[in-house]
Structure formats: C-alpha cells, structure tokens
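Appendix C: a fully annotated inverse folding record. The material below is reproduced so that readers can follow the format used throughout the book. The structure is listed first as tokens, followed by the designed sequence.
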C-alpha cells in the first residue's frame, strides 16, 4: 500500500488480497490485484495525487462493468457478449448461432 493510506484502504487491501488468495491466486498476484483495486478506488474518490483517465471518468466500477472491456484482443468479444448484443438488437435465430455466425449477424 502507498504511504499515507487511510485505515479504510488498508482494510480494503487486506480483504481483497485474502479473497484472491482463497480463490487460488498466488500471493504476488493477490497483492497486485488488491493494490490495483485500492489505487483505482483512491483515484476515483480523489484521495490520490495522480489518476488515470479511466479511473476518474468511468461511470461504473470494474465489478459492475463485468468484463465489458475484456476480450478485445485477437479473439474479440466472447460468445456470451456477442449473444447479449444480438439480443439487444432482436436478431432472430441468435440462440442457435455459433460465435462466428453471431459476429456476422452483428456486422463485425
């Protein structure tokens, strides 16, 4: 934790770290996740001197975003993400479509 962190942030860090370790993350990975999460929350609440654009301008927390920005690399969005988008656009036959078929139906 950064020097000068509040007791609340220290507790938050420990809680996240322990939770990650219970889920099977290594100690180093658990510490990294906890530190990143706490630092982002500090930035969002104005407790840090510097903050990244996404930390301060996100409307939703990472938890509520639910992986919206994940899987944008070589593989693209997941089949479930494509299905949800197709559902919003009322594309017929979406439940029996493959990932590639969903992608084509959505014009991707």
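Designed amino acids, in order:
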């Amino acid at each position: 934790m950064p020097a000068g962190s509040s007791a609340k942030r220290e507790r938050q860090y420990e809680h996240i770290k322990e939770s990650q370790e219970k889920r099977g993350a290594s100690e180093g990975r658990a510490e990294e996740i906890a530190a990143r999460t706490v630092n982002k929350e500090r930035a969002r609440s104005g407790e840090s001197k510097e903050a990244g654009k996404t930390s301060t301008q996100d409307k939703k927390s990472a938890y509520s975003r639910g992986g919206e920005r994940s899987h944008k690399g070589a593989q693209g969005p997941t089949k479930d993400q494509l299905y949800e988008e197709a559902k919003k656009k009322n594309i017929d036959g979406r439940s029996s479509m493959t990932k590639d078929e969903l992608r084509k139906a959505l014009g991707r």
